[in-house]
Design brief:
Layout: E1 8-11, E2 14-16, E3 20-27, E4 39-46, E5 60-63, E6 69-74, E7 79-86, E8 94-101, E9 109-117, H1 128-137, E10 142-145, H2 152-160, E11 169-176, E12 185-188, H3 195-200, H4 202-213, H5 222-237, E13 241-244, H6 262-269, E14 276-280, H7 285-300, E15 307-309, E16 327-333, H8 338-346, E17 350-355, E18 366-368, H9 372-404, H10 410-417, H11 420-429, H12 440-455, E19 459-460, E20 463-464
Parallel strand pairs: 2-8, 9-10, 10-11, 13-14, 14-15
Antiparallel strand pairs: 1-3, 3-6, 4-5, 4-7, 7-8, 9-16, 11-12, 12-13, 16-17, 17-18, 19-20
């Protein structure tokens, strides 16, 4: 929900369960300012639980001050709440919404990220500057650049913005498929990547895989297993995370099959070599559906693994598959740093998201996978928080692109915008009083001209307009 379409917003918006908290309801349009000194009925309605009070009985009677309603309340359950209010029992409610979370979620920052994107240094279309700019334009907090067998291209994207302060965290990665292997592994890097070794030391790589393969003697797909173990071992020695992507991707060849046949996929899942599973990604809708069903089957058998979604975007313009911006992961991390994001993924504090392409703008049709309570929370955040951050980020994305093209003044304007999305984050998740909005001056102006309006003889087409009370 964009602010220019919203009527009210709470501050904060996210609250801890079981702790008395101060809440303000802030009108976002002048004619909605609460009348100072007037009493309003306030109803706090949990969306997932029965409200204890009778329907007509308010939870609180609140006297307006500074055009806002401010009160204290203790939220009992982890869920969404509607804050409803009115000044007359006969009137209809107005409302805004908030969310209360348990201690393990409260204080974590939800970050919108893509863990698997490409540049033309492997097989993508968009060069470094436009790639990062377009992701920021869509409201992303972080991306990992993961070209096929190319670590250096992630450094190239970072280098584009070395001279300017931006709020998009661009991180290093690579998509590993070692010589002779059809298995792809997304490597979120902490060190320098592993591709240089197997690309430039193929003979040594082959000998090392030969030795590992002895562990799988007599097992079907022993060579593929050995190559997967070699790669994931190197990734973890590098300090990185290994993600298993798109098993039901069909590469069109003379003998087209799924990227990973089922017997091998079962072995890989139970190997313990992977840190997360890309449950939605570079597949058709049919492939993503199979991926979800397959994992649900494993989960019913007691299997657990952290889940992510990534676009596997090879282009951000004129993409017939329209994955860019529509397949991503919400990560609940301490902050927007590599270490915090890694920790969150390892702990399963992620929500994989896939939007229905036909309805991208309204965001009414999307799927959130994984843990139920995180899915409930993520749904609220997509509609109430991330739509707002995307609006803020659009101008930053445009200016990032202009900066890479040497447009005069782009750097200064871009840096002046740095921190805006963090301030909005503090409005939602911070302490009471850390509001993104300061309505005091606007209220003074509105009250001044409202009084002029009341004192003025107002006519239209010869007839007097009914004066406001």
């Amino acid at each position: 929900m964009q602010d220019n379409k919203a009527r009210y917003i709470a501050q904060p918006v996210i609250f801890p369960v079981g702790k008395k908290s101060k809440v303000s309801v802030i009108p976002l349009k002048g004619h909605l300012y609460f009348e100072d000194g007037k009493e309003y009925m306030v109803f706090v309605v949990p969306m997932c639980y029965n409200r204890k009070l009778p329907k007509a009985q308010p939870d609180l009677i609140v006297k307006a001050e500074g055009g806002m309603l401010t009160f204290e309340y203790e939220f009992e359950h982890e869920c969404e709440y509607e804050i409803r209010f009115k000044d007359d029992p006969e009137k209809a409610y107005s409302h805004t919404c908030v969310y209360a979370v348990e201690e393990d979620l409260y204080g974590l920052r939800p970050l919108k990220g893509d863990l698997h994107v490409h540049t033309p240094r492997s097989d993508g279309d968009d060069y470094s500057g436009e790639l990062a700019s377009n992701f920021r334009h869509e409201g992303f907090d972080f991306i990992f650049v993961t070209d096929h067998n190319r670590y250096f291209s992630s450094e190239e994207v970072q280098d584009e913005f070395k001279g300017v302060k931006i709020d998009l965290n661009i991180m290093n990665g690579e998509e590993v498929h070692t010589p002779g292997s059809t298995l792809h592994i997304v490597h979120l890097c902490k060190g320098k990547g592993i591709d240089e070794y197997y690309c430039h030391h193929t003979e040594e790589y082959e000998k090392e895989v030969d030795e590992i393969e002895k562990e799988f003697a007599g097992i079907e797909d022993s060579r593929k297993l050995a190559m997967a173990k070699w790669a994931t071992t190197r990734i973890h020695e590098d300090g990185g995370l290994a993600i298993l992507p798109h098993p039901f991707w069909v590469q069109i060849t003379e003998t087209s099959t799924y990227n990973i046949v089922l017997p091998l996929l079962d072995k890989l899942f139970h190997s313990g070599w992977f840190d997360a599973y890309e449950i939605n990604g570079g597949m058709t809708d049919n492939g993503n559906d199979l991926s979800i069903s397959y994992f649900n089957q494993l989960r019913s058998e007691g299997f657990k693994m952290p889940l992510v979604s990534s676009s596997d975007a090879h282009k951000t313009f004129n993409d017939s598959k329209i994955r860019f911006g529509n397949i991503y992961t919400i990560v609940f991390a301490k902050d927007n740093t590599r270490d915090s994001i890694f920790e969150a993924i390892k702990n399963g504090m992620t929500s994989p998201v896939l939007h229905k392409v036909q309805d991208v703008e309204s965001n009414h049709e999307y799927r959130v996978q994984g843990d139920f309570r995180l899915a409930m929370y993520t749904r609220f955040l997509i509609e109430n928080y991330f739509e707002r951050t995307k609006t803020l980020c659009r101008a930053e994305g445009i200016l990032m692109r202009e900066y890479t093209l040497g447009v005069e003044g782009a750097k200064e304007t871009l840096e002046s915008m740095s921190g805006r999305s963090y301030k909005l984050y503090r409005h939602f998740f911070g302490e009471h009083g850390e509001s993104y909005y300061d309505i005091a001056e606007d209220k003074k102006r509105y009250d001044k001209y409202t009084q002029v309006w009341k004192d003025y003889g107002i006519y239209t087409r010869g007839a007097a307009i009914k004066q406001p009370k």
